[in-house]
């Protein structure tokens, strides 16, 4: 399956049991809720997926199970976040073997690589696999920016096709479009800039709060695509306090707590993360409560 870089693709959370093993039953509940809402792809093992805590075997299990669950309906991407080029190439080969449709790739972890090193890293992986690649550009959290000059070099690799644009600079959508047109597809990666990015020309949305609110997220995308901008804005304004739970160091705990209250997740996280407590927990619960109390009635967004 080739990837149509468009629409809403959830960066799904990884579900754990109380015994700190993969909870594949609850994982399936959430994936099925995403598919029912009409998402356009699934992204595994990202920041929200607690990537740094997962073993290679667990990543393989999640990929294989997701491929079975989606049954060809949407593409399945697995994130690569490795410390070495050798490790990243091995991860790409494993993803291909496990049936993934594509890769989301961060720059090298831990070592703050220079521009030439980052370009060489991405190129080496791209040349080692036939899978399409989306570069995850998040200098705010990961301290390395993939610049336009670097993308100009990377696009020599035909299978580097998209960017998850998480610089938090809304103007970057226009810069990328001006520089590369449709050669580099743009998937906005910041929930609180999502609608703005889509209206400025982003092709899709790698979303976080979609994990708890799949229908509302897809409705925003479909409404703006259909030109029903004011309806999209109305839902987005309701959604914004919840979306702000994504731009927070505790985004995993925040979103998992929201999933509990919409019935499609659990609160279990993997140590060193701990569930929210005290005033922090009370604040997030209040945001979720207010959101649920004023949850909008959605139009028939699937048939626009």
Structure description:
Pyruvate binds at residue 206. It is a single chain. Helix 9 (214-225) packs antiparallel against helix 10 and helix 11 packs across helix 12 (278-293). Helix 3 links the parallel strand 3 (76-80) and strand 4. This protein has 12 helices and 8 strands. It has one domain (7-303): TIM Barrel, CATH 3.20.20.70. By secondary structure, the protein is of the alpha/beta class. The chain is globular. It has an 8-stranded parallel beta sheet. Helices cover 45% and strands 12% of the residues.
Care to give the gist of this entry?
With 304 residues, the chain is of the alpha/beta class.
Show the helix and strand layout:
Layout: E1 7-10, H1 24-37, E2 42-44, H2 56-70, E3 76-80, H3 85-98, E4 102-105, H4 115-128, E5 133-137, H5 139-142, H6 148-154, E6 160-165, H7 171-180, E7 185-188, H8 194-199, E8 204-207, H9 214-225, H10 229-243, H11 251-261, H12 278-293
Parallel strand pairs: 1-8, 2-3, 3-4, 4-5, 5-6, 6-7, 7-8
């Amino acid at each position: 399956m080739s990837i149509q870089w468009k629409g809403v693709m959830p960066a799904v959370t990884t579900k754990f049991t109380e015994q700190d093993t993969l909870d594949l039953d609850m994982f399936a509940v959430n994936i099925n809720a995403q598919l029912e809402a009409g998402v356009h792809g699934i992204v595994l093992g990202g920041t929200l997926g607690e990537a740094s805590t997962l073993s290679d075997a667990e990543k393989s299990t999640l990929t294989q199970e997701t491929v079975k669950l989606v049954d060809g309906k949407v593409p399945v991407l697995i994130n690569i976040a490795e410390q070495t080029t050798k490790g990243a190439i091995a991860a790409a080969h494993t993803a291909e073997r496990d049936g993934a449709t594509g890769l989301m790739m961060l720059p090298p972890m831990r070592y703050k690589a220079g521009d030439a090193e980052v370009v060489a890293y991405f190129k080496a992986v791209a040349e080692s696999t036939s899978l399409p690649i989306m570069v995850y550009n998040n200098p705010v959290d990961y301290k390395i920016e993939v610049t336009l000059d670097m993308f100009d070099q990377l696009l020599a690799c035909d299978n580097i096709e998209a960017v998850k644009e998480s610089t938090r600079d809304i103007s970057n959508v226009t810069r990328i479009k001006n520089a590369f047109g449709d050669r580099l597809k743009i998937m906005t990666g910041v929930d609180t800039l999502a609608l703005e990015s889509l209206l400025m020309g982003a092709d899709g949305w790698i979303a976080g709060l979609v994990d708890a609110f799949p229908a509302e997220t897809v409705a925003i995308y479909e409404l703006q695509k259909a030109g029903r901008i004011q309806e999209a804005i109305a839902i987005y304004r309701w959604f914004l306090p919840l979306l702000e739970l994504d731009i927070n160091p505790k985004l995993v705990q925040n979103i998992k707590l929201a999933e509990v209250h919409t019935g499609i997740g659990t609160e279990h996280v993997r140590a060193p993360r701990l569930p929210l407590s005290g005033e922090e927990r009370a604040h997030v619960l209040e945001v979720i409560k207010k959101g649920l109390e004023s949850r909008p009635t959605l139009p028939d967004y699937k048939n626009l």
